[in-house]
Structure formats: structure tokens, C-alpha cells
Target: tRNA glutamyl-Q synthetase
Amino acid sequence: MGIFRQSILQILNRLRGKFTKRKYYCILMAGELHFNRTRIAPTPSGFLHLGNVLSFVITVAWARKTGASILLRIDDLDRERYQPRYVQDIFDTLYFLELPWDEGPRDLTDFEQHYSQVHRLPLYQEALQVLGNHGPVYTCTCSRSTIHGVTTNSAYPGTCRNKYYPLDTAQANWRLYTGDSKPLEIRTLPQGTMTTTLPPSMEDFVVRKKDGMPAYQLTSIVDDLHFGVDLIVRGADLWPCTIAQHYLASQLPANSFHQTAFFHHALLTNAAGAKLSKSAGDTSIQSLRKGHNNSSAIYGLLSRTLGLQEQAHNWETLAEQLPDMLHQPHGINE
Model:
């Protein structure tokens, strides 16, 4: 079983009996750490579920232990899937579960008027211009179905790499050439600095989509640098994205992205072993609220899902019970 398919419950079962009553905060065993800012960065593509809440709790726990300010950053640049009700659900969930944040929008109106990624389009376009003028980007006209028809592992086969289409070709992606990629050093917690290379799934990844909009890997880096984020907490399934973003940062003008620390936590999975998904309609916090569950009941449900021995009733009591091994060691079965 691949490392990214292992559930939190499997990890807890292995640890049960060895780490009884260990505090989540013990993950900071490497010594006193301090960070400037971390972020909660949901995508409004559906209603939030228990897996999202777990990630938020881990982020808040890291922030409160290390002095980091928590920024709420909502990644809404995929305008085809954007719906205001999903943004509203983010605020409803955070307020209902009393999950704190220190910076960023306080409600839907504040978000749309001041914090939407649409307002930062000039920053993204500036980065794309740099890549277009000086970076190894090229135009790709391949569709997803074309790529899936010639590869079995989601890796881009390099079909358009040497076709040299103009960058202003309509309805075409920009891909970042990664053929010269060298080993990358990534600061991870609590393991320390790890050296790795781009996985096949991230070779020649897209930085500008066919509609001319910047792709996720680029907007995420630009936003984190813009807001001064130096601690990123995310699911272990995003480890390939972390690697890709480090490579992309190395192709941009001098920046501090390589100094950012990353904590990759294990994923909450469904009965079939797949990670929970908003788009797949996994049980949402909204539906639990509508079922007359209070916040304590939802934290209790999350405790039982995780196989914890005591039921949590808020984010603090949940964080206290998460073992110090609630992370995925990279480099094994990736």
C-alpha cells in the first residue's frame, strides 16, 4: 500500500500501546521553534468535511505552539467551480467549530471585496511574464484525454516539449520544462531538511492554464511569498506539489520560499480507503450541523473516526490527543 493511501487510523493502530497519552505538541521535540505566519487555505469547490477540519486543527496547533499568526487564504481562482455558498461554508465551519484565525477575511463580503485571489492577478501575471521572458516554459496544446491516452501514471510524456509553439497560442497551456531538475532541499517538520527530486507526475507541470489563468502551483507560491508565510501545514497527498513548488520557486527571481517549513500530515480516509473529497460529496460539516450536531458532537465524531481513546469537545482537546507521529515520512513508497 502506498504511503499516501495509509489512513490516520492505520498509523494510530500501529502506535497504540507505544504512545499512550502522548501530546500532539510533542512533535516539537526538536526544540523551540518560532514562525512568522502560517495559513489555512481551503478551496471553495464544495462543502468542507471532517478531513478539512483535521487539517485546520493541526494547523492551529502548530501556530499556537510556535507563535505563528494564522492567515485565512481562500484559493478561489478556479472561477468555473467558484460558488459563493462554498466560501460562506468556510466561514460557517470555522465559526461553528471555534477554529481561530488572526488575519484575512472575516466574512464572505470582506473576502470578495478585499481578499479574493482575483485581486492578486497582477502578481501572478508578473510571475508568468518572468517565466515567459526568462524561464524554460513552453506551449502545450495537449488535452487531458490525449495525455491519459498515452500514459498510465499521469506523467506528461513531453509531447509538445520540442514543438516550439508560440507562447501566445490560443487555448494552450504553459508548461515549465523540468528536464534539468536537480535534487531539491525541503525543510520538513519534524524530520529536518530532506533532499528529493521531482516525481514523474510533476515533470513539466502546468503554470498557466488554457484560459490564460495562472495554475495552482504558481498562485500558491506567489501568495505564500506575498503574505510572508513561512510555515505550511498540508496533507501528505500534496507532497508532490511541495516538491514542484520548490522547483518553480528556483526558476523565479531570488526569493525566500526555500526557507519555508512544511508539515505533511496523514489523511483521513473513507471506508474504501480513499481520501475524503468535497467534490465526491463525502459527509460535510454542513450536513452534520443541519443534523442538529453541536460543535462538541462533531469533534467527538472526529475523535471516534481517528480511533482516539477519549472524545474531544474542541480543537484543543483534539490536538492534545494526536500522537507525535501524525505525519508521513517522505521518501518511502512515494
